Amino acid sequence: MNEYWNIKAELLQRIKINGGWTNCHAHIDRAYTITEKTFALSNQLRSEKWALNDQLRKASTVDQIYSRMARAIERMLEQGVTTMGSFIDVDYKIKDKAIKAAIKVREKYKSELTIKFLNQSSNGLFNEKKEAWQWFKVGAEFVDIIGGLLKADALREAEHLDILLGTAKQMNKMVHVHIDELNISQEHETELLAKKTIEHGLQNKVVGIHGISINARPKKEREKIYRLIKKAGLMFISCPISWLNERRSEELTPTHNPITPVDEMLHHDITVGIGTDNIADIWMPFNDADLWLDLRVLLETARIHDLEALTNIASSNGRKILGIS
Ligand SMILES: [Zn+2]
After folding, report:
1. Which residues are CB-contacts of 247 (< 8 A; sequence separation ≥ 6)?
2. Helix (H, G, I), strand (E, B), or coil: what is residue 104?
3. Counting CB atoms within 10 angstroms of each CB, which of 255, 277, 296, 299 has the fewest?
4. 3-state DSSP call for residue 126?
5. pLDDT < 70 stretches in the chain
6. How far is CA 82 from CA 108, 116, 145, 192, in A?
7. pLDDT score for 129
8. In a 10 Å sphere around its CB, with 0-12 CB exposed, 13-18 middle and 19+ buried, how is residue 70 labelled?
9. CA nearest to 215, candidates 273, 260, 268, 274
10. 234 to each of 174, 176, 184, 203, 264, how far by Cα in Å?
11. What is the DSSP letter of 39?
12. 80 C-alpha vs ligand 1 centroid, how far in Å?
């Protein structure tokens, strides 16, 4: 047989030499929760899936959450992941169950990989009895990095960010926020996050997860957004497969793939890492957390044909995004 350049083997070897894979973003407390019964509902609207997710979170025991997390970490270890970041749900509905499981998981795997936890308040930061705010504080104290979900507080996004960024500043922690994931031109969350980051003086400590809707804006606006991102020192996490399943729309926008605009971001010297996001749950039933598949989808859809850039995206950039020098 003829010799050929095994470019995949070369890239995997480079990632290994560069310290191994970093999975910057996941939700391992609800990994492997898809069942035959819930699979039938996995094509429902997002709002219905959130309600189902709430039921699941309420019913889960600490031991169940622990074994989901452990299985996800074993999956990471078999691929050579050395560092990962995962959101865990901490709010007034689930309370501290995921924290208890996270403490056990971190202890068990401490010699095998570095794991950074982030808090998710899936039901927002505001409710009548202020319990949402109290549980956010409990989560923020525990985690390594403050986590946010702007969609959980629709119409109160600026206030949501003020709480996240104000708390992060007080606790000297980084912040990761889900933004601009719906791939529509009306979303302007990246700009809001950048402006708020500058306002709170948290430059180079804040990370946007997804940022897909940036693609839906005209080039002139996108260039302005990248300059603002640079000014705020925002970094980005692309979860390449995560939003490929977004529904068809009749809106006319510049033609693009539904993925973080990594090609343009690299051009502007913006730090980007990758994450697997939801693993075998109601959001992504078929996702088996294969980092090579994520990197492959990224390199094809954002046309990154640069081995050094891909190596950094898969490893060292992720460590920077998770606050590990
Ligand atoms: Zn996520």
Report:
1. none
2. helix
3. 255
4. coil
5. 1
6. 15, 11, 18, 33
7. 72
8. middle
9. 260
10. 11, 10, 21, 7, 14
11. H
12. 22
CA of 277 to the centre of ligand 1 (A): 5
Q: Can you give the pTM of this predicted structure?
A: 0.96
Q: What is the pLDDT of residue 46?
A: 76
- Whole-number Å distance, alpha carbon 111 to ligand 1 midpoint, is 26
pLDDT at 127: 82
- Residue 52's pLDDT is what? 82
- The residues that bridge with 114 in the sheet, in sequence order, are 83
pLDDT in tens, 94-146: 899 999 999 999 999 999 999 999 999 888 899 877 889 999 999 999 999 99
Q: What is the pLDDT of residue 3?
A: 87
Q: State residue 288's pLDDT score.
A: 96
Residue with tokens 């997804």: 210
Extract the tokens encoding 209.
Answer: 């997860």
Residue 246: the pLDDT is 87
Tokens of 35: 């069942």
- CA 65 to centroid of chain Cα atoms: 19
Cα Rg of the chain (Å, integer): 19
- In angstroms, what is the span from residue 148 Cα to ligand 1's centroid? 9
Q: Specify the amino acid at residue 92.
A: Y
Amino acid 201 reads: G
174: left (phi over 0), alpha (psi -120 to 50) or beta: beta
For the sheet with 206-210, list strands across it: 21-23, 81-89, 114-120, 145-149, 174-179, 206-210, 235-238, 272-274
| Interval between CA 280 and ligand 1 midpoint (Å) | 13
- The Å distance, Cα 314 to ligand 1 centre, comes to 18
